What we know:
Blueprint: H1 3-6, H2 12-22, E1 26-27, H3 39-50, H4 63-77, E2 87-91, H5 92-104, E3 110-115, H6 121-127, E4 131-136, H7 146-152, E5 157-163, H8 175-187, E6 191-195, E7 221-226, E8 238-242, H9 245-255, H10 264-273, H11 278-301, E9 305-306, E10 314-318, H12 327-338, E11 340-341, E12 343-344, E13 358-362, H13 367-380
Parallel strand pairs: 1-11, 3-4, 3-5, 5-6, 6-7
Antiparallel strand pairs: 2-8, 7-8, 9-10, 10-13, 12-13
Helix pairs in contact: 3-10, 4-10, 5-6, 5-9, 11-13
The chain binds pyridoxal-5'-phosphate.
Amino acid sequence: MAHRVAAMQPTIFTAMTELALKHQAVNLGQGFPDFDPPDFIREAAIEAVRGPYNQYAPGVGQLPLRQAIATRMKNRYALSYKPQDEILITVGATEALAATMMGLLDPGDEVILFDPCFDSYRPAIEFAGGRTRSSVLRPPHWQIDPAALEALVSPRTRLLLLNSPQNPIGKVYSRAELERIAALCIRHDLIAVTDEVYEAILFDDQQHIPLASLPGMQERTLTISSLAKTFSVTGWKVGWAAGPAELIEALLRAKQFITFCGAAPLQIAGAEALGIGDEFYTELADDYRQRRDFLVEVLKDCALNVLPSQGTYYLMVDISTAGRGDDVEFCRWLVEEVGVAAIPASPFYTNPVEGKNLVRFTFCKSWPVLEEAAQRLKQGFAVPEINSGTPIN
Length: 393
Ligand SMILES: Cc1ncc(COP(=O)(O)O)c(C=O)c1O
């Protein structure tokens, strides 16, 4: 094993899923829907496989998908991108992030990100020889601290990586926060990289504002997203990056020798999916809001301190008063004794201690699964009745 990977443990998701299987637990851990994607996208994939799309796609991706992404960014966010050289199709958002680091970082370059963050960010930066500088957001409001952020900037800072809506905390960045981040990027000539895979899963009148849409930002921002969460196709791994041609060219040079291209017919199906009308998005967000509200009530009934979730399909619980140890101990107890799997938050942090009182639950599960989880949680957290029979003398 090379030094590069020796210190990297199997991800927390793999470990918790194995534990969930072993104890036949209801899995509210890993963030993938256990229900089928909409019929129209599955039909589009079948049609594409039947059609002439079964050989290598162009390295930059199928043109219809790049066109569909450009149209959607124009219609939803008033952002213009040229499908020819300002959009790159990748194997999920994960490859877009990895190719970004490979394509834009020199060894020793620094990347600012916001903890707690998705677990692929740090390894992707390290593979490229980069260094992570994290700004820790703290519950319950997870607000950015502009002074702390400013202090992270050094002459080696090259990128700022932002995830909104943010996994695992369900935070949606406000316009005011985005303006501060944009000003910092402009002041220090940083490239912004945004991971917007949960852009369509927003609650309570929250609005998705791409950082690229702020004045002066499109020319310095790479916007990354994917089909996975919006269309419940996490297994397809169809993602993309949109940005200035010279940045896209840097990603492409890395990507061409990582995967060269992704699954050709699924890109064609993706082009069709992105043409869906606004009603689909309204229903998607409303459906997840109902699941969120259900799980919030269940967890509150267990006397757990549930933190607000404004977007994504996750919510965080502060377990500091639950009396079951730290996040890892709590999750182990939950899976073994209660039969429900969740994810300890410490692996989402550069400094794991920051997450020791936090646990992430997902609600992207079918109703019978959520109801079964509710039953188990109710039983697991029930206060044992005090035996009032024989008085003790
Ligand atoms: C914030 C974030 N980014 C990226 C991904 C991965 O996206 P994809 O499946 O398109 O690679 C995930 C998946 O959970 C995620 O939560």
